[in-house]
Every structure is written in C-alpha cells, then in structure tokens.
Amino acid sequence: MTDRILEFLRNRQEDGPCMVLDLDVVRDNYFSFAKALPDTRIFYAVKANPDPQVLSLLAELGSCFDTASVVEIEQVLAAGASADRISFGNTIKKERDIARAYALGVRLFAVDCEAEVEKIARVAPGSKVFCRILCDATGAEWPLSRKFGCAPAMAPRVLEHAHSLGLNAYGLSFHVGSQQRDPRMWDGALKAAAEIFRDLAERGISLQMVNLGGGFPTKYLRNVPAVKAYGQSIFKSLRKHFGNRIPETIIEPGRGMVGNAGIIEAEVVLISKKSDTDQVKWVYLDIGKFNGLAETTDEMIRYPIKTAFDHDAKEPCVLAGPSCDSVDVLYEKDPYLLPVSLEIGAKVLIEGTGAYTTTYSSVGFNGFPPLKSYVI
User: Fold this and answer.
1) How confident is residue 223, by pLDDT bands cut at 50, 70 and 90?
2) Yes or no: is domain 260-375 CATH 2.40.37.10?
3) Which residues, in sequence order, are bridge partners of residue 348?
4) What is the pLDDT of residue 3?
5) Which phi and psi (to 5°) does residue 304 adopt?
6) Does 89-253 match 260-375 in CATH topology?
7) Longest distance between any two alpha carbons in the chain, whole Å
8) Considering 18, 135, 150, 324, which one is annotated as catalytic?
9) Which residues pair with 262 in a beta bridge?
C-alpha cells in the first residue's frame, strides 16, 4: 500500500474493480534483486504483469526478460529491450513460434526433452539451449507440477543431443515453486545441477549457465524473508556445489518484482447467510476467480484485505466472486476474518495483487469486463 496508490484511488472516477500499480515499488524491487545477487542477470518473468509501462521501466533499468510466447517477445521488443536480452523460457513451443522468435533475434531457448531440441535445431540453428530439470518445491505457496522439466538423470542426454545437432548446450534451469518462502530450497537443485555439469564435462560438453528460476515471494498475510536472505543462501549453495568455478547465473523474478507494487480496489456486492442458524456470512465481491483472482484456487494464495471497518470486531466469512459459476468462491475451506460492520457497497483493498491478476482476468465471462489496470 503506497500513498501514491491511495491518492489515485481517492481521485479516480468510479468504473468498477481495478488494479493500481506503483512503478516506484517496481523500481525499488529491481534494485533489491540487483543488490542481493550482484553477479546474476535478472530476467523479469513477463507473464507476471506485461503492462507496457512495467516493461519499459525494467528495460530502461537494464533488465532482461523471460518470455513464454511470441506475443510476449514482441511486447518486450516494443518496450525497448534488444533481442539478446530475451529468453524464450517456455518448454512447450510450436515450431513456427520458435522460428518467429529466431527471426526476431532471440537466441536463448528452454527445453526439457529431445523433441523440443529437434524443433529448435531445425528452425533456430546455433541457438543456446538450457534444459529445465525437476526439483523439490516444498515450502512454496503455489507449487509447480511436473508439467515442466525432466528428471535430472535425463538432462545430460537432452543437452548432449542438442550439442550433436549443432546447438549450444548452454546450461540448466529449475524452479523451486512460486511464492517460495524458504531460501534454502535452491540448495538441492544446485547440487543436482553441479552433478550434471560434471557429467557433461566428462563427455566434452562445457555448460556455462544455471537459470535459478523464479519463486521469490511477495508479502501476503505471512511475512517472507527479504531478498537479501535469498541472495545469501543461493550464493552459499553455489560455492558449496560448484567451488571456485561458479557458472553464469540468471534469475526470473515475477511475483517478487511486481506483486507488492499493486492493489486491487473492489466493492462488496452482497452479504448474506445460507440459513438462520448459519454462523458464517457470505461476502460477495465484484471481483472473483474469473476477474483476476485465479490464484485463490485451492486457497493457495491468501491476499491481505483492508477495509474502512478494520478497527471493528471481526468474524469468519466465506468470500466469493460475482459470477454465476459455483467454483467462483475465493475462501471457504478456511473462512476469512472480516469486520462485522462491513456493509454492502463498501470498498475493499486487496493487497499484493500486482502479479498474476490482470492477465488471469477473463475477456468477458458472464459479461463482466476484464480487470482494469492503472499504472502510476
């Protein structure tokens, strides 16, 4: 919550729920990452928030960019970054999209299997590739599945195949889970990476880079370690597993870069009970899972919510969205404590919503418009 955001909300014309993001916070976050990991290149995860003003600011600051599609690549180029600052980090790419990225100047691609390597070899010859490996994501509030990455034992074969096809077997990547609150979770993945480096060196292939991924958290209801703690823990693990031959490293912060820079203002549409004996109220907002709060799925991300009534006593409430879909319930398994005096028509501020909200908002489910975004 910043004074700039509060001033904007006081003066804005009412037009439904919106997300307001403060660029000053993004700037501060960028410098915090740069200071915590001074020898590591920052590749902002564009999917977290691709607003043109966010991308332009980060491009000016010298950031590189992790992209998941050709559209994101084009957005980054339009923001002023050169193609050599872009990674095509999605391991699932159409061959024509790889070719388009290559034509735009991108030369760094993620893979996790031999079939993906072969696509890149056909249409992006000579490019650098890094192989994503599976790792433990214990401690992450938004754990990642087995959809991306291969077993560490398989990675040498994938990269050796890339080398045999004339590609630059550049390195490895992993992701310890989004909103990872334990800085020590990078250690196991770095141990596996170091073993793969040694394995391939014995085969005559010298890897150069480790992509440390994202996972750096933003503050929601629970406190999280400062970025400095992550930098110290990661560097300690690099020294432990790689000794004096520390490879090039990159990070892909998304949530940690923009999450705490944004606030959603929403409105209470209805407050009701399901029976006369029900002890829990239902509070319906004009924003839900389909309007930008998709990360409340399984109640994994619990956003801080502020109201003008927070000085009053609180009671457990089920929090839900406005759509005619029964899954549009935000918090029910673990009801949310809201003021007993909360009223229909009252505004609520949902904090930590600068990442993974606007781009999760549907185009028009039930006729509700996409979540409005303002960058200040």
Assistant:
1) confident
2) yes
3) 266, 307
4) 95
5) -65, 135
6) no
7) 74
8) 324
9) 21
Give one word for 346, left, alpha or beta, with left for phi > 0 and alpha for psi -120 to 50.
beta
Average pLDDT of every residue of the chain = 96
How many C-beta neighbours within 10 Å does residue 246 have? 13
Give domain limits for the chain: 89-253, 260-375
For residue range 9-20, what is the model confidence (pLDDT) as tens digits? Answer: 999 988 899 999
| Nearest in space to 197 (alpha carbons), one of 185, 186, 209 | 209
Whether residue 331 has pLDDT greater than 90? yes
Statement: residue 201 has pLDDT above 80: yes
What letter would DSSP give residue 323? Answer: S
Is the pTM higher than 0.90? yes
Greater pLDDT, 22 or 137: 22
Burial of 2 (0-12, 13-18, 19+ CB in 10 A): middle
- Position 15 scores a pLDDT of 86
Cβ atoms within 10 A of the Cβ of 308, count?
A: 14
Return d(Cα 164, Cα 172) in angstroms, integer: 17
| Contact status, residue 95 vs residue 118, Cβ threshold 8 Å | no
Angle at 351 between CA 31 and CA 63, to 5 degrees: 25
Q: How far apart are CA 176 and CA 189, in angstroms?
A: 8
Q: What is the mean pLDDT of residues 189-199?
A: 98
Task: Give the separation between CA 329 and CA 323, rounded to whole angstroms.
Answer: 9
Q: What pLDDT shows up at residue 221?
A: 85
Distance (Å) of CA 28 to CA 24, 251, 256, 261: 6, 17, 11, 10
Q: What are the structure tokens assigned to 188, written together?
A: 């196991």
Cα–Cα distance, 294 to 356 (Å, whole number): 8
Q: Give all strands (DSSP E) within 74-191, no chain letters.
A: 86-88, 108-111, 128-132, 140-142, 168-173, 178-180
145 pLDDT tier (thresholds 50, 70, 90): low
User: CB atoms < 10 A from the CB of 24, how many?
Assistant: 13
Q: Give domain 89-253's CATH number out of 3.40.50.1220, 3.30.1370.20, 3.20.20.10, 3.50.50.60.
A: 3.20.20.10
Residue 231: φ, ψ to 5°: -60, -45
Q: Is the pLDDT of residue 177 over 90?
A: no
Give the residue from 181, 293, 276, 275 showing the smallest Cα distance to 284: 293
Active site residue 324: yes
